[in-house]
């Protein structure tokens, strides 16, 4: 049970690590942010990573992701992969010849967040985008787990990616990774992590090569992303084109609506993520039969409530009310291990509210609910 260091209330849904309640985050945003920044700094430094995106007035601006770090000489960006060496920004990972990641084959249908509408799991878009009228049994997904992130979520469910970031391993070129998708049983690639947002040059080059090869042999190869959406705007059009052409889905995990809450929970702003979702809306309109974008939100007890979900759902509906929205059950992880699981009643209330704005709302990992 955590205790809020501002209002001194104790409750099981107050994180002991953070020691601030949602009410104080909303009512006393500046004080809450100051406390949170101190706490997360200590955790980040244990991994040897910067506590927040760099703003060195004498630095060089990095456009690698939407954090737009300004990196001084000798400093390393928030992602841990871009360094200013003697006045030049050098990519230690994420360039086409050096992706920091792990990959594996995952049999379809998978437990992916889009499984309730994706062509690989449901046969939607057959025969153009799926090999089968139902689940693509005997096919596989090439899962690409990128080892760096543009967010730093206190409840990160794949927190061990940080070991890949600081160890700068395992690396593989875009060309070699794309070759893994030539295996006949592979019908989709999913980029996740960590997050692909910090290694987009590598990710887009892999996509380009893999799609060319698939076209040559007349195969279906869907390109999908699972991302926080904190991507440099420059990469968005190409990402949209690849997803559109291939039948893929870009899954944005929108953590919260309130910007201050996002900074407290995830270390950085969510404004670029929301803006990028809007930009991808133009691609969504071009292929309504197989959704090109979808959104998910993790229902973190005590922090992500009905109000957050309502605002996110309203924002999605301003792009298109048919965009699929998945609400995900939470289980304690990383620095928020002490929080309880999402309750069934919260999940149902959030779904009810989201359905006022959106046509397609689902509760994912329902077995996790308490
Ligand atoms: Zn409080």
Characterise the protein shown here.
31% of the residues lie in helices and 18% in strands. The mean pLDDT is 96. The chain is globular. The two termini are 17 Å apart. It has a single domain (99-368), classed as TIM Barrel. The strands form four sheets. It has a nine-stranded mixed sheet with strand order 9-7-8-10-11-12-13-14-15, with helices on both faces. A two-stranded antiparallel ribbon has the order 1-2. A two-stranded antiparallel sheet has the order 3-4. The protein has helices at residues 22-27, 29-46, 119-122, 161-167, 174-179, 200-216, 236-246, 259-266, 271-284, 306-319, 344-354, and strands at residues 2-3, 10-11, 60-61, 70-71, 82-85, 88-91, 99-107, 140-146, 171-172, 186-193, 222-227, 250-253, 293-299, 325-329, 361-364. The chain has 370 residues and is an alpha/beta fold. It contains eleven helices and 15 strands. It binds zinc ion (ZN). The site of zinc ion has 7 residues, from helix 1.
Secondary structure topology:
Elements (H helix, E strand, L loop, with lengths): L1 E2 L6 E2 L10 H6 L1 H18 L13 E2 L8 E2 L10 E4 L2 E4 L7 E9 L11 H4 L17 E7 L14 H7 L3 E2 L1 H6 L6 E8 L6 H17 L5 E6 L8 H11 L3 E4 L5 H8 L4 H14 L8 E7 L6 H14 L5 E5 L14 H11 L6 E4 L6
Zinc ion binds next to helix 1.
Strand content: 15-25%
Net shape:
globular
And the CATH topology?
Answer: TIM Barrel
Reported for the largest beta sheet, the result is: 9 strands, mixed
Cα-atom radius of gyration = 20 Å
CATH architecture title: Alpha-Beta Barrel
Text of the CATH class: Alpha Beta
Q: Tally the structural domains.
A: 1
What would the average pLDDT be, to the nearest integer? 96
So, the CATH homologous superfamily?
Aldolase class I
Number of helices: 11
Helix content: 25-40%
Give the SSE string: EEHHEEEEEHEHEHEHEHEHHEHEHE
Strand numbers in spatial order across the main sheet = 9-7-8-10-11-12-13-14-15
The total count of strands amounts to 15
In this entry the ligands are: zinc ion
